[in-house]
């Protein structure tokens, strides 16, 4: 059994991206499953092309994409991807897509097939701050998340998929006043625990983790 887990390169003027820095520190095997780790570019289309090529190559049972959500205070599994690109900044090759559908024939949204509630519960039990997110933004992270779910559904693949956002690390917030951060070690420990939860739980729990607004 195989898990493909991805992290992005740095973007938006940052010198590093803890999404891939944490991913590459994960062990090569967790609970007997092979963990395949790749870096993807923060570039529309090219990021998904690399994921698709690796899905075809390694035939994973699970795909987990990890991205940075600077300013968030905890590890946040994403609940849903939405069918819109509305970039607030340019990607790493200067692309800026504003107010366009990701897939013209795609659904308005696709829900993660990872056990997001159980992921949050298990992370909190380990003393790692976590919460569900109901928006992956409208930048490359959401584009990757949406296209991944669309690709798996369109091709009728038996692959569980989802997206996890992680915060800044402390090195990134030295000049960012009142901005939340987490150690790279805690993020890596959190992702290790995410993988363990996914392996051990094919279905999710019904936890009261919703929000009012």
3D structure, described in words:
By secondary structure, the chain is an alpha/beta fold. The chain is 29% helix and 18% strand. The protein has a six-stranded mixed sheet with strand order 2-3-1-4-8-5. A two-stranded antiparallel ribbon has the order 6-7. α3 packs across α5. The termini are far apart.
Topology:
Blueprint: E1 2-8, H1 18-23, E2 29-30, E3 33-40, H2 46-58, E4 62-68, E5 76-77, E6 80-82, E7 109-111, H3 116-125, H4 140-154, E8 160-166, H5 184-200
Parallel strand pairs: 1-3, 1-4, 4-8
Antiparallel strand pairs: 2-3, 5-8, 6-7
**How widely separated are the two ends?**
39 Å
What are the secondary-structure elements, in order, as H or E? EHEEHEEEEHHEH
- Average pLDDT rating: 96
Regions with pLDDT < 50 over 5+ consecutive residues? none
Question: How would you sum up this structure in a few lines?
Answer:
With 213 residues, the chain is of the alpha/beta class.
List its traits.
29% helix; 213 residues; 5 helices; alpha/beta; globular; 18% strand
């Amino acid at each position: 059994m195989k898990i493909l887990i991805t992290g992005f390169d740095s973007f938006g003027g940052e010198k590093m991206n803890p999404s891939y820095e944490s991913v590459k520190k994960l062990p090569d095997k967790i609970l007997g499953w092979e963990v395949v780790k790749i870096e993807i570019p923060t570039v529309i289309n090219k990021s998904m092309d690399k994921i698709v090529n690796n899905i075809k190559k390694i035939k994973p049972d699970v795909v987990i994409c990890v991205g940075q959500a600077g300013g968030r205070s905890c590890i946040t599994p994403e609940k849903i991807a939405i069918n819109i690109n509305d970039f607030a900044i340019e990607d790493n090759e200067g692309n800026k897509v504003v107010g366009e559908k990701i897939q013209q024939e795609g659904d308005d949204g696709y829900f993660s097939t990872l056990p997001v509630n159980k992921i949050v519960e298990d992370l909190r039990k380990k003393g790692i701050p976590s919460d569900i997110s109901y928006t992956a933004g409208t930048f490359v992270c959401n584009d990757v998340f949406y296209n991944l779910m669309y690709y798996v559904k369109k091709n009728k693949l038996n692959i569980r998929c989802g997206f996890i956002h992680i915060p800044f690390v402390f090195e990134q917030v030295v000049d960012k006043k009142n901005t939340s951060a987490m150690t790279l070690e805690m993020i890596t420990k959190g992702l290790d625990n995410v993988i363990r939860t996914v392996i051990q739980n094919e279905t999710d729990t019904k936890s009261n983790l919703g929000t009012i607004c």
